[in-house]
From TrEMBL:
Residues 597-704, 720-771 form the SWEET-like domain. Pathway: Protein modification; protein ubiquitination. Keywords: Membrane, Transferase, Transmembrane, Transmembrane helix, Ubl conjugation pathway. The keyword Membrane applies. This is RING-type E3 ubiquitin transferase. Pfam families: DUF2921 (PF11145), DUF2921_N (PF25333). It comes from Stylosanthes scabra.
Length: 1259
């Protein structure tokens, strides 16, 4: 078969040849003696991009970059043979459409094909299965060959197939291997220091082994001897592998694992184990190898025994089917103790036990290293035994770097850090503290160079905690230290983005944790490649010091819970393994099991602080007013400018929305308390304003000045944010008048100044409010808006100026979430200079976009707006991977057949009344994502050719416009906006079912005549529906499936036009009968009954034309309005028995739709040999303009009788007009045999005596 490798993947190893065979039918008839007739399906192909081989591709042959797949149907016989020992054998003959080279490439559906399809029924397949399933007898072999003459079209060379018996076959363990001894390899003698895990029973061992073998093993570098690059233990590396392999780019997988318990002997438990060991490149995902059954040179058959006495599993390995050549020993050791240098639950080796010079190889070592959370999820270790060897050194480092005792005393007196929880048993306390200390957050590197990414993803998990160890110290506070071991990984890429052989080397940490100071002092070991250094043992550099400082839980009212880490190398700068100190800090971590309480308590504290400040301000102003009443002589010397500034300051506090509640994160009692605090604070601010106004009136009456004299400069100063300097006008007047009195009390000017300083000081020292892992709105006490809304104000100002006043609506949040989310809309870019994403695929790729409103805030950031957040999923798909992955957790996916990007947005909702666009709902949003951008040069990365690099982008503007009325010509959702460094993206969707559709009264009375070519439809009658309900029910049933577009043979059609639909450049330039279909979606059928008891129904829908090669369900789910869609609305009446609709072509980014199409739907009441359609329809032009006219487009809906019965509420036997029965009877009479032969035949079936003769006959 032809195969085109993907442009994104270059390694030839990725071109995997796979084959599957499935028996689908077994016949009870025996065509040959001692055989069984059967049929099966073979899927054979080449994969080069990790595609899903089991995906149900509809065609017999599928070819796209990175995938070629051929399906062959076989029929034949099964028999048992004595050849090659006893074996099962299948001999089958196949039939398929075989791809053969084309003389020259030709265009098919917009793609240049270099092959044609040839029907071939001359394919022979012979499969041989061993009758015995054991260590050396498990291989399924087959050969597929062409029966055509060599050199003829469709001939191919013989194909050899290999697989193995599956779990449905009964495995027979070998008695000869049971007594073989299994000694540790000399280099593994040190494993005995880690002990051996004790299992309760053979069943417990089998469960443990089953859990471990679910994941691949890592191959270790053998540091004792230099490995040979072309050899991988017993595995034979082919030419497809790199000439130099390393332990990091090959992994080991246990497959077909079987563990059988044996009866205990002398209280010794034992189990027999069988498996297939498969080596595979780490650059490929594990799922693409777990289901493989072929047995190439990268597999090893293994069988052996475990017993409770030795506590180890020893197996013999074979690379072929000859027992005498099973010269390999596999030893698996299960350590019972962890340490800073040993973190694996399984340590294994494969080595040769033969003395021949051509077969020995260096031992292959492997282990099973996983994070603590993975071990717990697998049920392997909950509280493992750990040998602490570095805690004294870590404690010494802590003592050396200890601050002053006074500082330590104050810190421990006022600050509280994560510690053991009282009231629980010790095991529960340790688990509780471990969960608090675990960290998986984004951190930022301090002092990173320009070519380094400052963002680092940190994952630190506690492996063990121990409080029983007594440190050698006389200091009482050091006796509270807790021994701790951790597993840490650092990466510059998000964990979900890691793929292939990208290895994140872990740090093994061990040391002490001080719960009174919240810090850890640790010694770390990291994996390194160099082994030339004498201080490197088993590839571990353990001269690393790590210090971790947690933030206090007592200061959450001021600081976000965070973590700061410093990693330092203890080596000299001349050492090749030395690295510069690394300092990492997380914006926030979550070590509180009640994280929501943190947000609520933070907001409540701020609310109380505002209330106290406002209450203090009222008291200070009231005392000044009393002072003025007692000292009226000082009143003329008071400055009106000072009072004006204070008045406008309090007024601004009342009208602006600086207080930000957290919406969905605060509920119930906390929300009610916050609202009460905010209401009380605003009331006190109002009191302060009224008291200040009273002061202003007193001063202006005494000075006999116009009250508006100081308003203009005061407003200017307000705009310049000078209200904090309210004392400046008073100071100036004091200098001018040289007054010896004191017009202002010290309590007044000192008090108000102090309150302003408290507010700003708190804003300065406190952290912005965040969610764990996500920075949200910056909620400062005195700030008007957060930084994200400052940016939004700049880019959305033109829309904010058009915002209409929002009417009171308690359900507005729910409506925004439901009505303004859409899925499977269309998108296009203005140009091709800077594309949003690259794509590689075949067929008719669809550009789809979905948007979902995720969160609504109860606070209005801007006047007449609602703050909200949402997620957009945008991409290109050719349908190879099924549904569009809107729920993917990855920020982007780029692979052949699919390009996908997820963007998080925050912004505002408003209602505008623009004179150009009329009334509409509008969303203005600012987005953030990890954007794949093209590069001038293609990088060789992880054996891939990557044409993009990753860039964090928070400069994406999205504007969505929704019409306020939902009707025939007002249903489209459109987008506009400027998007960073890529061309503008235009989005089109439509309002969903949660919006109320408004039928047009203007279209109600339009007539609908049949097209002249449809006059013959009257011969089939028109179906009479009992009611409008029956009509709507039938219409919904018919519209479930796509309609076939028919070619009009009475009038020559224009191949470049498809009725009113606008064929784009991506579609075929010429359409023919059968290569386009029509689907109805968003169907609305509104039943009506008039005063004369006549039934009618108003109907609205969207008709979408699409290539027949596309999946109908996918097209039905799309919501975009383009040149391939027709928005229709019309009316059915029981008197006319027909449905007539007006259609408008909806074009992406068009300002108005062209409603010049007439859609007529006829429901025939009779079937005939020439008419089998449930519904016949036409789309014709009602415009006289030359450029708008098009030839009629006809379509119908034909279903099988079975579908009619199961999906439609029709009678079992429809009305049928028999017109050919006389001719059929004449043919039967002409071919009738002799009368004597007819009389000798028994009736095939008698209908007499059965209650329902017609049902019996049909069955």
């Amino acid at each position: 078969m032809p195969f085109n490798p993907s442009k994104r993947l270059r390694h030839s190893l990725l071109d995997t040849k796979l084959v599957s065979f499935k028996v689908v039918d077994v016949s009870s008839d025996q065509y040959f003696e001692n055989t069984v007739s059967l049929g099966g399906i073979t899927s054979i192909g080449i994969l080069g991009d990790g595609s899903d081989f089991t995906h149900p591709y509809p065609c017999s042959f599928t070819k796209r970059p990175g995938l070629s797949l051929l399906k062959i149907a076989f029929e034949g016989v099964y028999l048992q043979s004595n050849e090659n020992g006893k074996e099962h054998l299948m001999c089958l003959l196949g039939n398929t459409t075989l791809p053969v080279p084309a003389p020259e490439p030709f265009n098919c559906n917009g793609h240049l094909l270099d092959y044609t399809l040839l029907q071939d029924d001359q394919i022979l397949l012979v499969l041989r299965y061993p009758q015995t399933f054991n260590l050396t007898s498990r291989v399924v072999r087959g050969e597929m060959q062409s029966l055509k003459q060599e050199g003829s079209l469709g001939y191919f060379d013989n194909v050899n197939i290999s697989s193995q018996l599956n779990h449905h076959s009964s495995y027979q363990f070998s008695s000869e291997l049971k007594s073989r001894s299994c000694d540790l390899y000399p280099y593994q003698q040190e494993l005995t220091t880690y002990g051996a895990k004790l299992f309760d029973s053979a069943c417990g061992f089998c469960c443990f082994l089953r859990q471990v073998t679910q994941q691949p093993f890592d191959i270790l570098q053998n540091y004792n001897e230099r490995h040979v690059a072309s050899k991988l233990g017993p595995f034979q590396l082919g030419k497809e592998f790199s000439s130099n392999w390393t332990h990091e780019n090959i992994r080991l997988l246990f497959q077909n694992h079987m563990c059988e318990e044996e009866a205990s002997t002398n209280n010794v438990q034992s189990a027999r184990v069988s498996a297939v060991l498969r080596a595979f490149p780490a650059s490929l995902p594990i799922y693409s190898w777990q289901e493989r059954t072929g047995l190439p040179d990268l597999t090893l058959f293994a069988e052996g025994t475990w017993n409770s006495l030795t506590r180890k599993l020893c197996m013999t390995g074979c690379v072929n089917s000859v027992l005498e050549e099973c010269n390999y020993q596999i030893s698996l050791h299960f350590p019972n103790v962890f340490s800073i240098k040993q973190r694996s639950v399984v340590l294994g080796s494969i080595y040769s036990i033969t003395n021949e010079t051509n077969t020995p190889f260096l031992p292959l070592l492997f282990d099973f290293l996983r994070s603590p959370s993975d071990l717990k999820s697998l049920g392997l270790y909950d509280n493992p035994h750990y040998n602490y060897s570095k805690v004294e050194l870590a404690a010494a480092n802590k003592k050396k770097n200890q601050p002053s005792k006074l500082f330590t005393f104050i810190k421990k007196l006022f600050l509280k850090y994560p510690t053991l929880m009282d009231g629980l048993d010790l095991h529960a306390q340790l688990n509780f503290l471990s969960n608090k200390l675990n960290v998986q957050e984004i951190s930022f590197r301090h002092q990173s160079s320009s070519n380094q990414n400052s963002r680092v993803y940190m994952q630190m998990q506690v492996l063990s905690l121990d409080t029983s160890y007594q440190h050698e110290t006389t200091e009482p506070e050091e006796k509270n230290l807790i021994n701790i071991s951790l597993h840490m990984s650092l990466s510059e890429r998000y964990w979900g983005e890691l793929e292939g052989d990208e290895v994140v080397s872990p740090y093994f940490l061990e040391g002490v944790y001080d719960p009174l100071a919240g810090d850890m002092h640790l010694i770390g070991c990291r994996k390194v490649s160099s082994n030339n250094n004498s201080s490197v043992e088993h590839g571990l550099d353990c001269l690393v010091e790590v210090k971790v400082q947690y933030s206090s839980e007592s200061t959450r009212w001021l600081k976000n819970p965070s973590l700061e880490m410093t990693i330092t190398s203890q080596r000299s700068e001349e050492d090749e393994l030395h690295f510069k100190p690394i300092t990492l800090k997380t914006p926030i971590i979550s070590y509180n099991e009640h994280e929501r309480d943190y947000y609520a308590s933070r907001k409540i504290f701020e609310g109380i602080l505002r209330l106290l400040i406002s209450l203090s301000a009222v008291g200070i102003i009231w005392s000044q007013l009393q002072y003025m009443n007692r000292n009226e002589g000082y009143i003329p010397y008071m400055s009106l400018g000072t009072l004006s500034l204070l008045m406008f300051g309090y007024g601004a506090d009342l009208i602006r929305t600086s207080e930000i509640l957290i919406g969905s994160e605060v509920h119930g009692y906390e929300q009610a308390l916050l609202e009460a605090l905010q209401t009380s604070t605003r009331f006190l601010v109002l009191v302060s304003l009224l008291l200040t106004v009273k002061q202003y009136q007193k001063v202006s009456e005494v000075k006999k000045k116009p009250k508006a004299y100081y308003l203009v400069p005061a407003m200017l100063m307000i705009n310049l944010k000078m209200q904090d300097f309210f004392l400046i006008p008073q100071v100036i007047e004091n200098k001018v008048w040289s007054s010896q009195g004191r017009p202002l009390r010290k309590t007044y000017y000192f008090g108000l100044t102090l309150l302003r300083l408290v507010t700003y000081f708190y804003d300065y020292i406190r952290d912005p409010l965040m969610y764990s892992g996500d920075i949200v709105i910056n909620n400062q006490v005195g700030s008007e808006f957060s930084s994200i809304y400052d940016i939004m104000k700049k880019h959305c100002s033109s829309y904010l100026s058009l915002a209409s006043k929002l009417s009171p609506d308690a359900n507005r949040g729910i409506r925004i979430k439901t009505e303004f989310s859409f899925s499977n809309g269309d998108w296009e870019q203005e140009g091709d200079h800077a594309t949003l994403m690259s794509f590689e695929g075949h067929g008719f790729p669809s550009k789809l976009v979905s948007f979902k409103v995720m969160d609504i805030s109860s606070v209005h950031q801007f006047e007449n707006t609602v703050s909200l957040g949402g997620i957009m999923s945008i991409g290109i798909s050719d349908g190879s991977y099924g549904a569009f992955p809107t729920s993917s957790y990855l920020p982007f996916i780029i692979r052949p057949g699919l390009s996908f990007l997820k963007i998080s947005f925050e912004g505002v909702y408003l209602e505008s009344n623009d004179h150009e666009n009329g009334k509409e709902h509008l969303l203005c949003l600012l987005g953030n994502t990890t954007l794949p951008i093209s590069k001038p040069f293609i990088d060789d990365w992880n054996d891939h050719y990557l044409e993009y690099s990753l860039l964090q982008d928070d400069q994406i503007l999205l504007v969505l416009r929704y019409p306020q009325s939902f009707n025939l010509t007002s249903r489209a959702v459109n987008q506009e906006g400027s998007l960073a460094y890529f061309d503008n993206v235009h989005i089109s969707s439509q309002l969903n079912v949660y919006s109320m559709y408004q039928f047009s009264s203007e279209l109600k009375s339009r007539s609908c005549d049949l097209h002249p070519y449809e006059q013959d439809l009257t011969a089939y009658g028109s179906k009479s529906f009992k009611s409008s309900f029956d009509f709507c029910h039938s219409l919904r049933g018919v519209s479930r499936r796509p309609f076939d577009i028919l070619q009009d043979h009475k009038d020559r059609h224009d191949a470049s036009k498809l009725g009113p639909f606008q064929l784009g450049k991506e579609s075929n330039s010429a359409w023919t009968n059968g290569n386009y279909r029509l689907v109805f979606h968003n169907l609305i059928c509104d039943e009506e009954i008039n005063s004369n008891n006549l039934h009618s129904a108003r109907v609205s829908a969207v008709l979408r034309a699409f290539p027949a090669s596309m999946d109908a369900l996918t097209e039905r789910a799309r919501t975009g309005l383009s040149g391939m869609t027709l928005s229709v609305e019309g009316r059915w009446e029981s008197s006319t028995k027909k449905l007539c609709m007006i259609g408008c072509v909806g074009v992406v980014d068009s300002e108005s739709e062209v409603c010049n199409s007439l859609i007529s739907l006829h429901f025939p009441n009779l079937f005939s040999i020439e008419q089998r359609s449930l519904m016949k329809g036409s789309i014709s032009s009602i415009s006289n303009e030359t450029n708008m006219f098009f030839l009629p487009l006809f379509f119908d809906s034909q279903w099988s009788p079975m579908d009619l019965k199961s999906l439609m509420s029709l009678k079992d036997i429809p009305y049928y007009n028999y017109s050919k029965v006389e001719l059929a009877s004449a043919i039967r009479k002409k071919n009738q045999p002799s009368k004597s032969l007819s009389l000798s035949k028994k009736p095939f079936f008698k209908l007499n005596g059965y209650p329902n003769k017609l049902d019996i006959l049909k069955q």
